[in-house]
Amino acid sequence: MINVDKYNQCMTKPIYLSAREAAAELGVQPATLYAYVSRGLISSVAGSGKRRRYDAADVRRLKGRRAAEDHSGTRPLNGDPVLETELTLISDDGPVYRGRLATDLAENSTLETVATLLWGSEEDPFAESAPEKPPALPPGLRPLDRLMMALAAWPLQDRAAYTQAPKLLQIKGAALLRYATAALLDTVPVETPIHTQFAEAYGVSASAKNAIRAALVLSADHELNTSAFAARCAASTRAPLHAALLSGLGAFAGPRHGAASDRVAAWLAEVTPDTDIEAVLADRLGRGDTLPGFGHSVYRKRDPRADRLLDILIRRETGNPFVQRLPQVVNVAHDLFGQSPNIDFALAAVQKTYDLPRDAGNDFLRRAGHRLDRPRARAICRPRADPPARGLCRGAAGMKRGRMAGQFKAAISESLQSHGCLVRGRNCRRRRCPSCLPPPP
User: Fold this and answer.
1) What burial class does residue 315 get, using C-beta atoms within 10 Å of its C-beta: 0-12 exposed, 13-18 middle, 19+ buried?
2) Backbone angles phi, psi at 341, to 5 degrees
């Protein structure tokens, strides 16, 4: 094993390793090393005779990336910027909507004013009258299913449903916001502010209406979460607005995304005025359970959205027994799990405080976060994959001998373009073809 870090890093002259030394340092076979070279991950120079030498700095860099991948157990699909957006910047102080902190807007703004801000509208897109009510839908549907069915029926009442005109899109977005609210709440679209519609449908107090308003504003947009990214991909194909929203809602329907606040509500149901909070959370810790609603993949320290919503709740509901215990819940959770509350915990806390319906926390997210981000993409979102193509060559061997010779040639052509196949289309022996080797980090 050659320790490439032992060399003086201040030296300006590059250090080169033999093929055996480089492969040993990476812990791979020489064929894998050659594949990395063919993909441009490691540079090489001519050595003595026909042998080549490999840049030790590239080997060290690649080794570090492979170690990080092995530690995570998978190739990460999050964390790296992939698209530009003018709408929201994620900062340590929370989301910034076109230069305005969401936590500041949450004090007095409505969802409609935030939508107008995010869309960059010069005129009020909500000045138009409300659309017609959604068509009659089968009874017994959950709010999300009712919403998706209603969106699919949108072209029945809007002849311009497939428009791409920017000004019309803003007006259609406002109409769809009211239309979707009615579908969620099973009511009729009206011009009343969205948070007021929720409060009236739930039959709650003015304090609850204010908390709902703040929750909608804080959830209005959060850059490229999974559902927003799905909607952007659909919109980049010039899909109509209602279809792009359906794409986002489809991603939101997954339990790892849309059901987050439901999981928080499940364990918060155990918290009563007489509950030993430390014992409840210690039991979860002892069982190895996670604590839904705490920690965030983007906010490494605290989620400012949760802090603001909980602050509003605590300031306005001083006499509520559950709200009085919220600071203790947060402190004990931090002491035991080392994490701070996120927006899902805050939404679940609002739901429990005002005894809102089960899906209320998710309804707030559906209302805002997956409707306001209408992308203005100039090109189709088309990420490229870097799969371990073992199956390609195994399947191609059979295709070459059968009636699928055309598919075989296409598969080899794709391998050449994507991986720089060393065998140049000849019968693959697996260990000779970089397409059959583990993908680089």
Assistant:
1) exposed
2) -70, 150
Which tokens hold the place of 341?
């509350």
Per-residue pLDDT at 291 exceeds 90: yes
pLDDT per position as a tens digit, 299-323: 878 999 999 999 999 999 999 999 9
Lowest mean pLDDT among 16-20, 142-146, 355-359: 355-359
Q: Are 299 and 392 in contact (CB under 8 A)?
A: no
Residues 6+ apart with CB under 8 A from 200: 192
Q: To which H or E segment does residue 96 belong?
A: strand 94-97
How far apart (Å, rounded) are the C-alpha atoms in residues 111 and 109? 7
The CB density around residue 93, as the number of other CB atoms within 10 Å, is 11
Burial class (CB in 10 A: 0-12, 13-18, 19+), 273: exposed
What's the CA gap between 355 and 80, in Å, rounded? 39
Distance CA 412, CA 417 (A): 9
Asked if 250 and 234 count as a contact pair (C-beta separation under 8 A), the reply is no
Give the count of alpha carbons within 13 A of 335, CB side only. 11
Pairing of strands 16-17, 52-55: antiparallel
Return the bridge partners of 16, or none: 55
How many whole angstroms separate alpha carbon 225 and alpha carbon 216?
Answer: 16
146-157 confidence digits (pLDDT tens) = 999 999 999 999
| Ramachandran angles phi, psi of 167, nearest 5° | -65, -40
Least confident piece of the model among 244-253, 314-323, 378-387, 414-423: 414-423
Helices (H), 338-437: 343-353, 360-369, 390-401, 405-419
| 334 Cβ contact list (under 8 Å, min separation 6) | 294, 340
Q: What rounded mean pLDDT belongs to the chain?
A: 80
What whole-number distance in Å separates Cα of residue 93 and Cα of residue 95?
Answer: 7
Tens of pLDDT along 400-434?
Answer: 444 445 554 555 454 444 444 444 444 444 444 54
